[in-house]
Amino acid sequence: ASVWTIQPRQQKTIIHLSFTSHVTGKFRGFVHLKTDKEDLLVPVEVMVTKGGVHVTPEIVDFQTLVSPAQSRSMWLTLTNLNPQPIELLSLYDPKQDQNLQISGFDQKGINVVPGATVRFAKVTYHGGDQGFMQ
Questions:
Q1: Number of C-beta neighbours around residue 69 at 10 A
Q2: 24, 46, 53, 76: which is deepest, by most CB within 10 A?
Q3: Separation CA 68–CA 127 (nearest Å)
Q4: Which of 79, 66, 86 is nearest to 128 (CA)?
Q5: Which residues of 22-47 are buried (b: 16+ CB within 10 A; e: fewer)?
Q6: What is the C-alpha to C-alpha distance for residues 123 and 51, in angstroms, rounded to an integer?
Q7: Secondary structure class of 31 (helix, strand, coil)
Q8: What is the pTM of this model?
Q9: Is beta strand 25-33 parallel, antiparallel or unpaired with respect to 40-48?
Q10: Peptide bond preceding 57: is omega within 30 degrees of 0, i.e. cis?
Q11: 3-state secondary structure of 34
């Protein structure tokens, strides 16, 4: 083992973590780092998925918006685990909700090479009129 000196407020990569699993799912654990001052326990979470194309978040939840003045936004991310590149050609809301805004998507399309993860669109939901919902 070698020793690193890391100055205050300095960032430095000290470890690369590799994880292999034949089972899909979310795995949690800890990496123990020993230092001359104190030992650190770093939480690690790994998501193992099958090949294919994955969008995160899987479910877009804007929570509760109680007035038209409120809005919430989040980015959509696409991961290509296929052995070949893919092209994302369009993005739209099939319900055409007037309170939903999609921005940041390049209308010319997005190429995603194998193994890559890209942020491809920002979705924002604006609260509607107060009242009863059916």
A1: 8
A2: 76
A3: 4
A4: 66
A5: eeeeeeeeeeeeeeeeeeeeeeeeee
A6: 26
A7: strand
A8: 0.59
A9: antiparallel
A10: yes
A11: coil
